[in-house]
Automatic annotation (TrEMBL):
The GAIN-B domain, residue ranges: 212-363
Organism: Cyprinus carpio (Common carp)
One GO CC term on file: plasma membrane
Chief localisation class: membrane
Keyword terms: Calcium, Cell membrane, Disulfide bond, EGF-like domain, Glycoprotein, Membrane, Repeat, Signal, Transmembrane, Transmembrane helix
Family label: Belongs to the G-protein coupled receptor 2 family. Adhesion G-protein coupled receptor (ADGR) subfamily.
Bilayer topology annotation: Multi-pass membrane protein
Record-annotated G-protein coupled receptors family 2 profile domain positions: 370-617
Any one GO molecular function term: G protein-coupled receptor activity
Record protein name field: LOW QUALITY PROTEIN: adhesion G protein-coupled receptor E3-like
Pfam families on file: 7tm_2, D8C_UMOD, GPS
Subcellular location: Cell membrane
Length: 638
């Protein structure tokens, strides 16, 4: 038999003899399995004809020699091929292994003889996976090579996506298939266990599952079993104590697996609690068993460390759960320790485990209202940012007025709020594109930081202005030129982002396409913000002191009280614009009131800038009046 790949059919008709796909060996297996014909990227449904090097061929109907064509198990059909007069017949498929021609059997396939002396065979993807699961469940093999085990695991677990498409998310089907996959996986991994006098270790890593097997024998020299680790989980178990309790063999083995896709079958919704909560799978599904161990009684509780695969919500409730045939339950498991990045679970038995978080559905509804409020506020803020920029660009200002910082504050925050708004609107499309999500979070980091730097520059300019009680002198303007300010305003933020990328490149691209909180990386943003806020507070205090001392020496013709009120109001409003609202972030601690207050103040920075520098400026108001008069006069003339 040939060893070429499979080509699926594109169309079907009533007579399979006149509707087949040219097919090289569909029964090829690479060591013990159906690894080629169980390709989950192929949709197998229909009738196929076999060709080898362009010559018509057929599946053998007598026992084929072991390891023929590089396969561990050779397959053939029992009962012979039919004649044309027989029509469509059903035949069993046998697998030759361990000197038995039909050591393995499968679900039957249909065969038909066609005029022209050739045969066609009916194949289907679902039957392939079912056959394979049936072979594993009925197998009496005790020991199997690591390559064979991983090949089997790769095939059956990769078929999950196809199963999900065909099951229409029927809970009963999900549970049934999930149970079969768990049993098949555990049985396959148990075949890696073999007798040892001391200790032995086996591990494997696939796209769908990671696993480790540790075996100890009667002459083990270890005092403590090393922690078994996968990428997202680990387990501590007293395997030596368990081995000592096995009086006959004084040996034991533990198999530990972490499934990357099992939550699609064993969903967190199967955690049966009150209906007013939302369940979220916070870890990969893990499995721990004691294969080929006579006495499986634990000498002490087993501790599992589960890394959070989703962002941790402090308001949620975490549960260490295990799978009990049809649902997740908490009996025998408890949370020992939890942080924002991982949780340690302690269990008094071994099974299939996971970490599930419950959050209130009411909180979710309030979050949706918060999102709506955020949407409205940000849109209003963007509109006033645009009006402020138009005013700065089109209106005539006094020669001593320097609007460079204010213009760049508007530009930075306008782009930041606009990008953040668009990202959240299309988050479901952006999130799967990890690179794009990380780039967006880095760009948001840069834009918000540059906004803060420009806020600091504006505070410095305001301090100089108040200290001189006049606009910046010409000498000062030469030192603080627009070009120099632009370099400072954007270069500082760019340096912070570049250093952050260099130190922790994986720190960008959270589930909200923002900076990740793991390992304290969020301080790459909050750190500079705290420094700028502290400096702005210092400048604000100095401005108040300077105003108080300077206004006493003003000309008596100037109304000291009125001037003081105006300057104090603008200074206070300026401080709000410079980011006073961000102080609320450090005190919110889950408070909805403070969150809403921060949301409103932060999103309305454009509104504050427009009110302070445009609406409260007599010259600008006069230019607005002239503009509207011209606009109204033009309409009347028409």
């Amino acid at each position: 038999m040939g060893c070429s790949p499979l080509k699926p059919s594109d169309s079907y008709s009533a007579d399979p003899c006149y509707n087949y796909t040219v097919l090289a060996n569909p029964w090829r297996a690479t060591s013990y399995t159906y690894s080629s014909n169980c390709d989950t990227s192929v949709s197998w449904r229909g009738w196929y004809r076999l060709f080898i090097n362009g010559v018509s061929a057929h599946i053998p109907d007598t026992c084929v020699a072991y390891s023929r064509c590089g396969t561990g198990i050779t397959l053939w059909i029992r009962g012979g091929h039919p004649t044309v007069e027989d029509g469509v017949v059903t035949r069993d498929v046998c697998g030759h292994w361990n000197k038995y021609c039909c050591y393995f059997g499968s679900y039957p396939i249909k065969v038909k003889a066609c005029p022209g002396n050739y045969y066609v065979y009916e194949l289907a993807t679902g039957k392939c996976v079912e056959n394979l699961l049936g072979l594993i469940e009925n197998s009496t093999v005790q020991v199997l090579a690591l390559n064979d085990v991983t090949t089997f695991l790769d095939v059956v677990l990769n078929a999950t996506e196809k199963f999900l498409d065909s099951s229409s998310a029927d809970p009963k089907k999900l549970v049934s298939h999930g149970n079969r996959l768990l049993k098949a996986s555990e049985k396959l991994v148990s075949m890696l266990v073999k007798q040892t006098n001391t200790s032995e270790y086996v591990n494997f890593t696939l796209d769908t599952v990671e696993g480790q097997v540790f075996m100890v024998g009667p002459k083990v020299t270890l005092d403590k079993i090393p922690r078994l680790d996968t990428t997202d989980s680990s387990v501590d178990i007293d395997l030596i104590g368990i081995a000592k309790n096995n009086n006959e063999t004084k040996s034991a083995a533990v198999a530990f697996m972490s499934y990357n896709t099992m939550e699609n079958l064993l969903k967190p919704d199967f955690f049966n609690t009150s209906n007013d909560t939302i369940k979220t799978m916070m870890s990969t599904v893990i499995s721990a068993t004691l294969p080929k161990t006579t006495n499986t009684k634990l000498t002490k509780p087993v501790n599992f460390t589960l890394r959070h695969i989703r962002e941790f919500d402090p308001s949620g409730s975490l549960f260490c759960v295990y799978w009990n045939i049809s649902e997740w339950i908490v009996d025998g498991c408890s949370v020992l320790k939890t942080t924002s990045s991982y949780t340690v679970c302690s269990c008094h038995h071994l099974s299939t485990f996971a970490l599930i978080m419950q959050t209130s559905r009411r909180e979710s509804e309030s979050d949706s209202l918060l999102e709506l409020l955020n949407l409205v506020c940000v849109i209003v803020g963007l509109a006033f940012f645009s009006l402020a920029l138009l005013t700065f660009a089109l209106c005539q200002w006094s020669p001593g007025v320097n609007n460079v910082a204010r213009i760049n504050i508007c530009i930075s925050l306008l782009l930041a709020h606009l990008l953040f708004l668009l990202t959240q609107r299309f988050l479901s499309l952006i999130r799967p594109l990890q690179v794009l999500c990380a780039v967006i979070s880095g760009l948001l980091h840069f834009l918000f930081l540059s906004g803060f730097v420009w806020m600091f520059i504006e505070a410095v300019l305001l301090f100089i202005c108040v200290k001189n009680l006049s606009q910046i002198s010409s000498k000062k303007r030469e030192v603080l030129s627009s070009g120099f300010l632009c370099v400072i305003g954007y270069l500082v933020a760019l340096v912070v982002v570049c250093v952050s990328v260099g130190l922790v490149p994986e720190g960008y691209g959270s589930e909200d396409c923002w900076i990740k909180k793991e390992k304290g990386f969020i301080w790459s943003f909050l750190g500079p913000v705290c420094v700028i806020l502290a400096l702005n507070i210092i400048f604000f205090i100095r401005i108040v002191i300077t105003l108080n001392s300077t206004l006493k020496n003003l000309n008596a013709e100037v109304s000291q009280m009125k001037q003081t009120k105006i300057m104090a109001f603008k200074t206070l409003a300026q401080f709000v614009v410079l980011g006073c609202s961000w102080i609320l972030v450090f005190f919110s601690n889950g408070s909805k009131v403070l969150e809403i207050l921060f949301l409103v103040l932060n999103s309305q920075q454009g509104t504050f800038i427009f009110l302070i520098y445009c609406v409260l400026n007599n010259e600008v108001r006069q230019q607005y009046r002239n503009f509207f008069r011209c606009l109204c006069c033009g309409r009347k003339q028409q």
